[in-house]
Amino acid sequence: MTRICVFCGSSMGYGGEYRKAAKQLGAFFTANKIELVYGGADVGLMKVIADTMLANGSHVTGVMPGHLVDRGVVHHNLSELITVETMAERKQIMVEISDGFIAMPGGFGTLDELSEILTYNQLRISDKPLGFLNVNHYFNHLFRFFEHAAGAGFVRKEHLENLMVSDNIDELIAKMKNYNPVEIGKWIKDIKVESNHG
Q1: Which string of DSSP letters, residue by residue, matches 109-164?
Q2: pLDDT digit string (tens) for 25-72?
Q3: What is the residue extent of each domain of the chain?
Q4: H runs (alpha helix) in the chain
């Protein structure tokens, strides 16, 4: 993977561990010659990763809708800025130009982005890996929801077991490099059988 898209907060979060993790991720990308794709903002954890990499001469691509550029949150010192019309187009461009994705702590926007990749991977629209960098156990409640959804029969066990999670960057990248998508035919057959019983 030479170009990874990072989904993360436009806020810093409380406590210094999130900012520290963002700097560490940016430094890891630089050391391993990985380019960054992200939302293009000059605020929050997004800014920390981008600034860390730009200060070391690494390539950073931002993708941002024009209405957000107009609101003054765009990073003006990026290697490349791709301006789009809609949030949906932004996500589509990110999918197209990235080799993989990392979710860091964030809010509604981060949840929207990572949910789209999980769905794309489930449906084999994209086979690019999504890893969760679980800083300070941030995503644990989300994983408990996924487990609840699996227990209730709305998330397949094989998809739950295929999530890639770590609080260690090296370990997470290693998992992402070994990502094997879930074969789509079996679980679609299973849900057809379930839907025709009872």
Answers
A1: HHHHHHHHHHHHHHTTS----EEEE-GGGTTHHHHHHHHHHHHTTSS-HHHHHT-E
A2: 999 999 999 999 999 999 999 999 999 999 999 999 999 999 999 998
A3: 3-195
A4: 17-31, 44-54, 66-69, 87-97, 108-122, 140-151, 157-161, 169-177, 184-195
Which residues on adjacent β-strands are paired with residue 17? none
d(CA 12, CA 92): 25
Structure-derived torsion over alpha carbons of residues 168, 170, 175, 177, reported in degrees to the nearest 10: 150
CB 107 within 8 A of CB 82: no
The C-alpha atoms of residue 40 and residue 50 are separated, in whole angstroms, by: 8
Note the pLDDT tens digit of each residue in 167-183.
999 999 999 999 999 98
Query: How far apart are the C-alpha atoms of 59 and 37, rounded to whole Å?
Result: 9
Smallest CA-to-CA distance from 39 within 120, 99, 125, 106 is with: 106
Which CATH number is 3-195 given?
A: 3.40.50.450
pTM to 2 decimals? Answer: 0.94
Place of tokens 């210094």: 16
Count Cβ atoms below 10 Å from residue 17 Cβ, excluding itself.
13
Q: Among candidates 36, 44, 81, which has minimal Cα distance to 63? A: 81
